[in-house]
Amino acid sequence: MSGSASITDGLYTASAEGAVIELPSRARLRVGPNGTLRVFPLPQLLALTPGARTWTWSFALQSGRVDVELPRVGRNAVLASMGKLSAVVTSGHCTFLVDGSEVTSANVEGELKTLLGGHWQTIPLGWGSTLSKDDPHATPKPGLPGPTLTLGQRMWFAPSSAIAMHGFHWTAVPGAQRYELRVRRLSDGKVVDQRSTEQTEWSAALSPTEPGRYSLAFRSVDAHGIEGTWSPESELRVIGVVLPAGAYSTEQAIFLGAGQRVQFTNTDGLEMTYIGAGRYFPAVGGASLYRGQKTVIGFRMPGVLDTAVARLEPRGLFADVKIGPQRALWPRDPISIDIQVKSKNGEIPPFLQVIPTVTLGLDPVNLDFTQDGNTLHAVLPPSAQPGPWIVRVDVADQYGVSLGHDFLEIAAQPRKRPPAAQDGKGGAAPPAPATTVSAPPIPAAEPHLAATD
Fold first, then answer.
1. 133: CB partners within 8 A, 6+ apart
2. Closest CA relative to residue 181, chosen from 156, 161, 207
3. DSSP conformational letter for 420
4. How many CB atoms lie within 10 A of CB 148?
5. How far is the C-alpha of 257 from the C-alpha of 401, rounded, in Å?
6. What are the sequence ranges of the domains in the chain?
7. What single string gives the DSSP state of each residue in 360-419?
8. Could you read off the pLDDT of 40-75 as tens digits, one per residue?
9. What's the whole-model pTM score?
């Protein structure tokens, strides 16, 4: 399947990189570097369990290491012969090692029985047996235990689609040459990452993982490269965020507009708190800015000190709108409109689209804005309609969230007085003669009437 090997009279010798051989039963033999074995070309029907016989493929390991991986499908087995010791794998992952006069069989994650001198022995999960001068009966013994997780983060926020988990520490195990750590997705059991190290910590970033629930386990590997059992799994949680339109997030914070609310995912069973609450309470699915100000929210698993912190901050985006000249008169002055998008936190998200709306009175005006970076510019020509006029500029993003506005009152330019009349000699014409109007005569006063009895 991979790697390379030389074949002489049916004897495989793997290259320095090793080789993988797949049998017709879908069992895989992972041959270690320079390992030597003979694979028999036909299976046998063996009575390994009561009832029907089992199709069994066989190989003889002469030197080196072979890992057998047998799927739990159908009634199949793999028989490994290593001198006086034989072993049968009926499922899972088992390891065989021939190193001089020592022969080792180990049940890593499977089902294994050994046969020595007509005596069968079941090798429990995580156990192994070594046939040597010191142990002529190949007595099964437990393998190295897995280390225990001590310090490390257990929860993360994924502000985008995925985040890389990191920062794990575990106890040292006597006799361990190295350690393996494994991350599984709990929803389907799929292994999403597996690493090996000689240290008792992993500070580098693992493969990015999507929001969800995961498990972390460790196992020890001895000097022969034989893996022990996996430690009990510790739950990891990646909390996702669902942002409203126009909001955005960075590694530092989630930025929301006024009145917006962020939704959290994968918070089932968690506890949450916020600064000022003074206690933890069952987690809810969403949150918004408290009084429009920066809000810090913490999530934790019950009984676990590690806390994942979400920082909610006002979006802080605004448009600095300038309309001028301030004492504009029409039809004398064209109106210049300049819009500069700014951010209080110094970051303008690349997705932001600036949409200006210009109105003259109540009527919208279509203008062609030119954009240079975060600055937009347009010119509004004088209107032919009677004034005075009010020009208003409203700026929003593509989601309709307001960024800023401004307005300008424009007066009509005063009309010039007509020029004075001129005489024929170039001087001012004499004033027109005054017209005399006779006043009407005043009637004589009527005599007082004498009082009568």
1. 101
2. 207
3. P
4. 14
5. 7
6. 2-142, 149-238, 243-314, 317-412
7. ETTEEE----EEETTEEEEEEPPPSS-S-EEEEEEEEETT--EEEEEEEEEEEPPPPPPP
8. 989 999 888 777 889 999 999 999 999 999 998 778
9. 0.71
CA distance linking residue 383 with residue 298, whole number of Å: 57
Structure tokens at 94: 């088992």
Please check whether the domain covering 317-412 is classified as CATH 3.30.230.10: no
Contact status, residue 234 vs residue 216, Cβ threshold 8 Å = yes
Phi, psi of 359 (to 5 degrees): -125, 145
Spell out the long-range contacts of 250-254 with Cβ–Cβ below 8 A and sequence spacing 24 or more. 250/159, 250/347, 251/159, 252/311, 253/311, 253/312, 253/313, 254/159, 254/310, 254/311, 254/312, 254/313
pLDDT per residue as tens digits for the range 207-266: 999 999 999 999 999 988 999 999 999 999 999 999 998 888 888 889 998 888 999 999
> What are the percentages of helix, strand and coil residues in the chain, rounded to 5?
0, 55, 45
Torsions phi, psi for 40 (to 5 deg): -80, 140
Nearby residues of 381 by Cβ (< 8 Å), 6 or more positions away: 334, 335
Residues 6+ apart with CB under 8 A from 350: none
CATH of domain 2-142: 2.60.120.1440
310 class by beta-carbon count within 10 Å (0-12 exposed, 13-18 middle, 19+ buried): buried
Q: What DSSP designation does 209 have? A: B
What is the C-alpha separation between 223 and 219, in angstroms, rounded? Answer: 13
CATH number of 149-238: 2.60.40.2550
Does pLDDT of 450 surpass 60?
no
Q: What residues have CB less than 8 Å from 62, skipping those under 6 apart?
A: 11, 36, 37, 38, 98
In 186-244, beta strands by DSSP E? 191-197, 201-202, 212-221, 234-242
Tokens of 202: 């992993």
355, 401 in Cβ contact below 8 A?
Answer: no
149-238 and 317-412 agree in CATH topology: yes
Contacts of 415 (CB under 8 A, 6+ apart): none
Predicted confidence band at 147 (pLDDT cuts at 50, 70, 90)? very high
